[in-house]
Amino acid sequence: MAQFEEVSKQSSQHPKPAGLVLQYGTAGFRTNAKHLDHIMFRMGLLATLRSKKTKATIGVMVTASHNPEEDNGVKLIDPMGEMVTPAWEGYATQLANAEQGDLLTALKDIIEKESINMSQEANVFVGKDTRSSSASLSQAVLDGVSALGGHSKDYGLVTTPQLHYMVCCQNTQGKYGEATIEGYYRKLCQAFIHLSVQQASNCTDDQKHLSVDGANGIGALKVREMESHLRRELQISLFNDGSKGKLNHQCGADFVKVQQKPPTGININPGERCCSFDGDADRIVYYYTDSDGQFHLLDGDKIATLISTFLKELLTQAGLDLKIAVVQTAYANGSSTHYLEDTMKVIVRCTKTGVKHLHHAAQEFDIGVYFEANGHGTVLFSKVAEEKIQQLAEDPNMNDERKRAARLLQNTINVINQTVGDAISDMLLIEAILAIRGMTVQQWDAIYSDLPNRQLKVKVSDRRVIDTTDAERRAVSPAGLQEAIDTLVKKHRLARSFVRPSGTEDVVRVYAEAETQESADSLAHEVSLAVYRLAGGVGDEPKPLH
Length: 546
Ligand code: 16G
Ligand code: MG
Fold this sequence. Notes:
It comes from Lates calcarifer. This protein is about 40% helix and about 20% strand. The protein is α/β, with parallel strands linked by helices. The radius of gyration is 24 Å and the shape is globular.
């Protein structure tokens, strides 16, 4: 067929280095940008097939998120704006690793397995982050789409969540919003302004101010672009806007969360509210320093608590009986889980690490708030929940308090990007909640106190020897490891620890929390040693932290 001839011809412009093997991991392909040209071309092909199969628009985002500037990566987006389904992650890996001469066979194999009608039209949306390699790599994606005769729309520089949003809007015929960047700003900012009008009467101009660390990436560009839509209801000082610093270098949400310190390149005054985005703006963390110079981090767990508390109160005021739950991972601080379950009395679920797991678990409730501790998260509203809220907001016989709560819920729904965690949308929601409640960042922080914790990594010869269960909270292999962890945990107060093979790096991750930092540090070290000894550690034995 002519289509396949075109693929052959074009693919020779994007040849695969022989022997190179890459995996579609937790968040797509991600590695040094120089190994990715053929991957991008092939993901253009695969997205075209996926579009034919689903008869819907598919998204392809070129980014390596919080990785260093030299890296790049690619993620596929399914019709409703969610991550691509697992079976197709498998196809992505197969197609990526087929040697140059076997590409057509690999392609035909997928077409056959999925019974794809090749005469079906295909549409693919493509976006990219600010990395210098992103321009040519996104061109390779576009080449892949056109080689199979698909139509593409190049959104150019966008955040990852913006592209997810565009895909969802397109496939819901505009019901979710307009599939343009302007449409995105308009929807989110209008909802934000409606919410802000409800702010506590004592809210000063100072409280409308927020310092944003843009990680020298796409998020910074997009915050600038959005600013005029905010009509000074939110006054942003933007740092690390990419004009001088390097992408993600000593800045951004991942740096701040892992290092537990402020990014470089930001002027931080004691008591002032600040936040950091990651390199593709799908994560956000907040922080401030107090008058003693002490750093205070408000991570994904604190964000989930703030949002779910706000929503639960609104539901009570609205008199709506909707089931709300918070979805976390094993990394959630024990204090947050306790607070949510025991004080807030909301349902808490724990899933494996990785956005898609949290997203799916959240879909099971009327309102599902999901956040990873690292700051990736959003809120999902079921169709039923949205309808009930709308009915109430429009009911002419309803009393004012219930109606006001329902309207607030409506605007909350509109400020949220439900397709995936979105730093810009999360920021607007958090700012609106703080304004409505007249709450300072210190008061938010004081809702509960985090247990001190430590994360370490251990190199082993094959991390697959570690197998886990119970949402990664217990190890089932190698033999004896879980028993060893249990014994070590018992030596510390308020302690918890787990280990899991990383999905993005060739290491085993160790998490420990306990009553004091010393205790968390020594537990993390002791568990690292157990991993090193029982799971085939390589290199030097882990050393104590102190
Ligand atoms: C990826 C995941 C993130 C997860 C992280 C864990 C997505 C979009 N991203 O970045 O959710 O927290 O991996 O990394 O799913 P690890 O497996 O190396 O600990
Ligand atoms: Mg990211």
